[in-house]
Amino acid sequence: MTTSTREANAKAEAVTAVKPDRKFRWYRWQRRFAPYIFVSPFFILFAVFGLFPTLFSIYLSFQAWNPVQGLGSMEWVGIENYQFLLTDPWFWKSLRNTIWLALASGIPQHLLAIPLAFVLVSVVHRSLRHPLTAAYFLPYITSTVAVAIVFNTIFGTQFGVLNWAINGLAEWPLTSWMFSGIRDQMPINWLGRAPYIKPAIAILVSWKYFGFNVVLYSAGLATIPRDYYEAAMMDGATALQRFRHITLPLLRPMMFFAITLTIIGNLQLFDEPFILTNRTGGPSESGLTLAMYLYRTGFEWLDMGTAAAMSWVLFLVIGTSTILHFFISGRRGLERRE
Amino acid sequence: MLKPARVILATLLLALGAAFAQTNISIALYPDLDSHLNAVLEQFHAENPDIIVEVRILEHGDHHTALVTNLATGSGAADVVAIDVGFIARFVADGGLVDLNSEPYNAGQYQDIFAEYAWLQASTTDGRLVAMPTDLGPGVMYYRRDRFEQVDANVEDVIADWDSFLEFGRAVTRDTDGDGQIDVYLIADAGDVARAMFRANIAPGDGVFFGADGTPLVTNERFVEAFRVAKAIRDDGLDARIGAWSNEWYEAFKRGTVAVQLSGAWLLGHLQNWMAPETAGLWGASNLPNGIYGSWGGSFYGIPEQSANKDAAWRLIEFLTTNPDIQLAAFDRIGAFPAVTSTYGAPLFDEELAFLDGQQARLLFSEVANNIEGRATHPGDNVAEEIVNSALSQVLDEGRDIEEALAEAQQLIARRTR
Q: Does the model's ipTM exceed the 0.85 cut?
């Protein structure tokens, strides 16, 4: 024991000898339990609104329950809900839709965001960087419902802005070569036909979330030391070469993080397809994502047990995708930069 | 005790006694039912001084979701709840709403004053009545008089049967200004025709989607014929493929892009007030083609089982639904077509509607209301409807074979309502 500890013990003993018993017990009690008391507001809220619903939904996934008949009408059915799901054509369809949408809206987000972040950080004038980043970030913080309503108008068939723009581009001499095949398809019924509703949703989701990725990648780029770039410039590297050989490799940890967030977020897509398809899931369920089907099963078809089972299957899908992602890029994504 | 003190004490006791004798009930509604209720509440209170009513309003979709949640947890529901016809099937399962046919309500005594089909819509297949009808949506065909005149078509001839309807469609769907794109279509969505058809001419004993024994019957002739006619409309390019309640749909009414629209009596109010007010005088209303009758909408009032004031709630429902004067007041104020058929002789019904070029359309609506054949609601109706709609869209949009799509729908419905 060191001197200071001995002194401290002597002090404590002196304190014990002098202070009355009750006060000291209170002192000891509140020292022991104070941390828990300070944490409890958060923990109580978490337990009631986070932990309990999670556990209850596991329990619910093994029951058959029509909520209109009240809490007492739950019936134990074991794994029948899961069996039903695995043999349900609409479940597999919505899973395919979700994965397609996750990829089709996730990949453009990152492909756009990385070069854009690079341009914002290294090429654009310093005073413009933050306003431009803010402008790109705006779609992310806008209400999904408001955005989807506006996009409903943009994607209109007869009177929509997008079709009008495509028509215009197809006639303009400079770009008409790109759009030569489109002529026969016009006017494109973005929201009413199965082949087009998925790209329409993907466009909306990419537009909405790429700004968030721009901000993430800007932050990641800002951590790359300028010396590397200066050294490369002295060796005569062009901007493109600097991008390929310095930026990309050193951006890997941030890419890993951003892609994980995209996987988790996109597999749970609900708001955008819900509003764009007007609650219906699109023509022949082509815009129906797993989260939408879950909502429909639980709240419109009043089959709560199956809905709970579906939410846990979704959890497994997201978990598996994330684990796969970790395996593929995990080691290199998480390791320190050399 | 001093005299003033005695007087004060007596007044206090009286007030206390009165307060205890009063019942507080709540009613949950969606817009626009509240404007009507607030207007007639005073009269209700005059007739029932011991009942105080609190009004709760939520948006249409939220209201029904909240009702499901309240019934699920067994608390929080109002004493009287309004239910839209599209959501009735959710609440016919046993245990949520009070069976109004039972004692002491005996709603059966009122059965004859209502339009028959509305009564059936709120009834379950096992004879319970879960709600009282309050307003209806008799189905009519709204048509653009100018589009008919342009091709010299007579409305009576067009609606004679589906063939003449299609023939008119082929004549009216054309490019009117020579720009290569079709400007006028027969109808906004061929699916509307299919939906109107399979809800009509139902064999006695069957429900819309389920037979008397509870098995789905969506592969029968009624559905096949409905799908066939809709497919004929789609294949000939006679429909504009516009979804209802979208901006395109409103534009189509403003510009006269569609020649007919099948809908309920209430669409008139919407067209007149905000969708296409500038097209007043260009419209007319007629029966549905091929002599079918259909219903688009309707509202009901029910009492949740968990209510502690069922008797007072029942008095309010009786007031709102069985009193002809109140029903007419609702029609006047919010355009809610009365469910009580005895009101159909009122002068209000003879009014010439300017929007429809002076047509006495309310007489048409009441004729339709009296002729619609209703069916009791099966708890699986919501699910079946969505699955059949999906099959319909596959047939129309993706060109799937009708029999195949219906067979798959039959299978899916059977699985879902296990």
A: no
**DSSP helix/strand/coil, B340:** strand
Is the Cβ of A75 closer than 8 Å to some Cβ of chain B?
no
* Residue A3 pLDDT > 80: no
Question: d(Cα B270, Cα B286) in Å, to the nearest integer?
Answer: 18
pLDDT at A90: 92
SS3 B251: helix
Most distant CA pair in chain B: distance in Å? 98
B339 and A CB contact within 8 Å? no
Torsion of CA B174, B177, B178, B180, to 10 degrees: -60
* C-alpha pair distances (Å), B196 with each of A309, B138, B139, B229: 36, 12, 9, 11
Cβ burial B354-392 (10 Å sphere, 16+ → b, else e) = ebbeebebbebbbebbeebbbbbbbbbbbbbbbbbbbbb
Contact yes or no for A278 and B246 at CB 8 A: yes
Domains and their CATH numbers in chain B: 12-136+297-348 (3.40.190.10), 138-295+355-416 (3.40.190.10)
Q: For tokens 């790359």, name the residue.
A: A224
The answer to whether A105 and A289 have CB atoms below 8 angstroms apart is no
In Å, how far is B397's CA from the nearest CA of chain A? 7
Q: How far apart are CA A69 and CA B92, in angstroms?
A: 10
The closest alpha carbon to B173, from B235, B228, B240, belongs to B240
Chain A touched by B91 (CB under 8 Å): yes
The pTM (predicted TM-score) of the whole model is 0.82
- Residue-wise pLDDT for B260-274, tens only, equals 999 988 888 888 888
* Six-digit token string for B82: 């309004």
Give the list of residues 6+ apart from residue B75 with CB closer than 8 angstroms, or none.
Answer: B306
Structure confidence at residue A276 (pLDDT): 86
Report residue A245's pLDDT band, with 50, 70 and 90 as the boundaries: confident
Provide the residue ranges of all domains of chain A, joining segments of one domain with +: 3-60, 82-155+190-334
Q: Which of B73, B246, B257 sits opposite A71 (nearest CB)?
A: B73
Contact B397 A194 (CB under 8 A): yes
Q: Residue type for A74, please?
A: M
Write out residues 263-302 of A within 8 Å (CB-CB) of B. Answer: 278, 280, 283-285, 296, 299-302
Q: How is residue B65 written in tokens?
A: 């979701």
CA of B189 vs chain A CAs: smallest distance (Å)? 11
What CATH fold (topology level) applies to the domain A82-155+190-334?
A: MetI-like fold (1.10.3720)
Which residues on A lie below 8 Å from B182 (Cβ)?
none
Instruction: Give rounded-to-5 percent helix, strand, coil for chain B.
Output: 50, 15, 30
* CA-to-CA dists, residue B281 to A3, B256, B268, angstroms: 102, 12, 12
